[in-house]
Amino acid sequence: MPADQIFEALASRPRREILAYLSAQELTAGEIGQRFAMSAPAISRHLSVLAAAGLVISERRGQFVFYRLTPDNLVNTLSRFAFEVCPTAGPLQRESRSNAKRKTKPAT
C-alpha cells in the first residue's frame, strides 16, 4: 500500500484514536461507535480509510463485521509504541486492554 494512504489515515485524530481502541481487541463498528461521539456513517468512513491503508482488517461473522488491527504491520507496531506515551491514545489503549481482559475472563 502506498505511503500516502497510510499518512492520510494517520493524519486524522479520530482514526488514530480508533487504532488505539482496537489495539488489544477486535470490535464491530457499532461497538466502536458507542465509544466515540460520531455517527455510524462517520465511523464507517474512518474504518474504510484505515482498511484502504492496510491498518485494519475486517471479517464478517453473521450480520456483524468485526475490525482489528492488521497483524505484523510495522505502522501498527510503531503506533502501539507511540500510543503508550500519547496523552490521548494512551488511555484509550489501556481501556482497550482492560475491555479485552474482561471479555476473555470466564463468567463465574
TrEMBL record:
UniProt KW ATP-binding keyword: no
PROSITE patterns xrefs: HTH_ARSR_2
Alphabetized UniProt keyword annotations: DNA-binding, Transcription, Transcription regulation
Annotated NCBIfam families: HTH_metalloreg
Gene3D superfamilies in alphabetical order: Winged helix-like DNA-binding domain superfamily/Winged helix DNA-binding domain
PANTHER family, sorted: TRANSCRIPTIONAL REGULATOR, ARSR FAMILY, TRANSCRIPTIONAL REPRESSOR SDPR
Name the UniProt record assigns to this protein: ArsR family transcriptional regulator
Domain HTH arsR-type, residue spans: 1-89
GO terms for MF: DNA binding; DNA-binding transcription factor activity
